[in-house]
Structure formats: C-alpha cells, structure tokens
Amino acid sequence: MVAVSIAQDSSIVNYQYSKILTIPDLSFFNQVYTGLDILEQMDFAPVRSKNIGILTNHTAVNRNGDHILDLLKNEPSVNVHVLFEPEYGIWGLDDKRAKLVGRERVDPVHGARIINIFDGMVYPPRWAMAELDLILIDLQDTGIRYSTFIASVSKLFEAASDWKIPVMILDRPNPLRGDIVDGPVPRTEFQSLEAYHLFPIRHGLTLGEACILINEIGWVKDSKHVELTIVPMANWKRDTWFDQTQLSWKHPIPFIRDSETLLAYAGMDLFRGTNLNAGFGTDHPYLYVGAPWLVANFFLEKLNDFGLPGVLFEEIKYRPRGSIYYNRVPKYDGQSCSGIKMSITDKNEFDPINTATSMIMLIHHLHPREFQWTGDGYIDKLFGSDLLRTLTAQNKSPEMLPPQWVHDVYLFNQFRQPYLIYP
Predict the structure, then answer these.
(1) Number of other CB atoms surrounding residue 79 within 10 Å
(2) pTM attached to this predicted model
(3) Less crowded by CB within 10 Å, the N or C end of the chain?
(4) Measured between alpha carbons, how far is residue 414 from residues 362, 397, 408, 418 in Å?
(5) Residue 15: exposed, middle, or buried by beta-carbon count in 10 A (0-12, 13-18, 19+)?
C-alpha cells in the first residue's frame, strides 16, 4: 500500500474543458460539506430556470439526509426532465419508489422518466437529450476501480458531448481517503467495466477529480470532451476517512453496508474471479471466505504465518443463502462452507489488496485440485492484468506480487496531481 500526501492548489490550474466552481468560504466551520450541500448553500442558483437530467442514486443526500430529488422539488424553476440510473438503480435493488406508466418507469417526485444507462450501457434516446440545458451528476463513488459508477459517468459524457450539453458534478468524498493509491493499473487488453479507465484498484480520487482527469485527457470514447463544472466540497482533506466527515453514510453498493466492508471490498472483490465464496449469501460479504472443500484450520495457520497487518482471522463455518442484495445465486448456495472470518483491527495498517491476493495464492497452493479461476479469465479483468493468475500458477510467494505494481502506483500518483482539487 502506498500513501502519499499532496498539497494541491487547484485555483492555479487552468483546465481546457473543465472548471471548478467558486464556492462560499466555509473554512470557519469544522465540518465537511458535499457538493450538494454547497449547491444548497447557493440556493441552487447554478441550476435555476434549467431543464435538467440527473444521474444519481440513493447516496445523493445532504448533511441532513435529504435527497437531491426532494430538495429540487422546492425549486419550481428547475425542471427535472429525465433521471439517468446507474448500476443497482436510483433507490437500490429493492426499489419500490418508481412507478410504471405504460412500459416506462417514472419518478414519483418529479414525474421524470427513468433511463437505465448501465444495463447494456444504453445510449440515451433523443427525447431524453434534445431538450436538456444541463446534466447534473450526484453519486457517492466507492474510491475503488471495480465499481461501475465512473464507467457510467463516462458513457453519459459521450452523449453529452454529442448533444453539446454541459455537465455539472456535485463532488463527494473518496470514502477510503484521497492520499492512498494502491494496486495495478490495468493493461489495455484487460480493460472492462471493472477496469474501465487506467486507474489503480484504489485510486485516491473523488468523483469530481476523476472526471476532470477523464475529461481533460480525453479518455471518453473517440476522445470526446464535455463542458464540465465541478461543484467542490468544502473542508475535505485527503487524509480523511468517510467516518471522520460526520456525513450520512449511504452504502453505494447494496451489499456494502459499512465502511469496514467497503475497505475489504478493495481486495476481496478479486474472489469473484475464483470458485471461493466471499461471504455472498451471508450478512458479511467480503469479510467471509470459504468453500465446502477448504481445510480452514490449516489455511488459517498458514495465513497467520504471513503476519498481515491490521487484520485478524478466525475459523468459521457458514451456509450461504440467496438475498435481494445481489442479483446472482451465491457460490455454494445452501451448502455448508468451511472458511475464515476477517476482522479489520487497524484500517490505517490494513492492506486490502495484498491481503486478498495473499489469501488467493495460499488457497491455490494448499488446494491445487479444488481451486479454480472462473468466468473465462474474469480475474484478469478484475485485477487488470494476468499477473496474479500467472504468479499463482507458478506457486510464487505472495510477497512477490505487490512489488510488481509499485511502479504503476508511483507513475499514476504523479500523473493525477494536476487534477487534484483538495489538499
């Protein structure tokens, strides 16, 4: 894990296609304000008298827990024409709020039609784009490359560029700090929805910073650009964990219910490329790992020999059961699994990627016949290269893997600095 401290004065950076909105000085308050809080402080002046489309989900709440759609209901000059829906929906997988009108889903707050831009990466139809003055984006990103929100934003940038519609992003914290960069940068042949841009697994960017970088570099398809405005946060520092902000936590992904699970997700999501169950079908996804064939006590003994920092392991038995919080049947559904439970004891010391890759390589070594990669090389898309799979096949020591991405981390950290908004 690589931690870097950066002092960046974004006011001295002149971007070609992007700008950072000048906001009221709130430094005399000892609390973090999101981009939505700032827009509310400005009485929504930047979006008044506009026909807007909004890409959002349930995480778009202000400091008081009020959702952006409810707040805009009190602004009669703002017409919400269409809602763009990311993965897991606007209100999550158990969404009961949208109502059907014919074949269309409609938001009951504004009467706006809802377009899912994740499934099949739908290009918004003409009716959705032709009348828009602005696209507003407010999402809580995870800070981890696997999640698809930044990919959805990038696809929406394509449409906005074609229609010459300005885009405004209400920024939110990177919940896992902004001064830690870790993991490999994906090689171009392994790019996918889980590795859509050339970001390390843990990129240390806010959504606003990531989108400035994408927009300025021209990483949208066909090097398209948009007229982009970022409404920045106030008082957020790069070394701040989300639970230090005193903001309301709304889990960005349905099965990531707390900050411990989110931090584990940075590494443990790699298990989706294996035939291990990573806690899906339990109340502890990403904190359990097991299989019916795993000899858990021997695995635990060897795992503890690694001395991995900031984490404790204990042997468990569990039985995965299906749940609404994931749209696939969990591996070994209904079967008794032997495994381990992971407890993060020090989040500043815990290295989720090194921990997960060490576990994967050890299980392969202990169970070469039972362990399998799944999904036709899916692990390479998650990891960003075939390096994990190659070194595992060679029975290399897990400690050999992290040095392979140190150079990636160093170069990406240098590369991202002109696009950082916060010190």
Answers:
(1) 18
(2) 0.93
(3) C
(4) 33, 29, 10, 8
(5) middle
Q: Tell me, what amino acid is at 138?
A: D
259-385: CATH topology is Aspartate Aminotransferase, domain 1 (3.90.1150)
45-76 pLDDT tens trace? 999 999 999 999 999 999 999 999 999 999 99
Rounded CA-CA distance 218/199 in Å is 14
For 193, the token pair is 């929805």
Q: Which tokens is 287 given?
A: 């904190």
The more confidently predicted of residues 378 and 103 is 378
Q: How far is CA 386 from each of CA 189, 269, 357, rounded to the nearest angstrom? A: 10, 16, 13
3-class secondary structure for 242-271?
A: HHHCCCCCCCCCCCCCCHHHHHHHHHHHHH
- How many Cα atoms occupy the beta-carbon half-sphere of 6 within 13 Å? 24
**114 has which bridge partners?**
83
What CA–CA distances, in Å, run from 238 to 4, 348, 423? 9, 14, 6
Residue 9 scores a pLDDT above 70: no
Domain boundaries, the chain: 2-252+412-419, 259-385
Q: Rounded distance, CA 95 to CA 107, Å?
A: 11
Question: Which residue reads 């931690």 in tokens?
Answer: 3
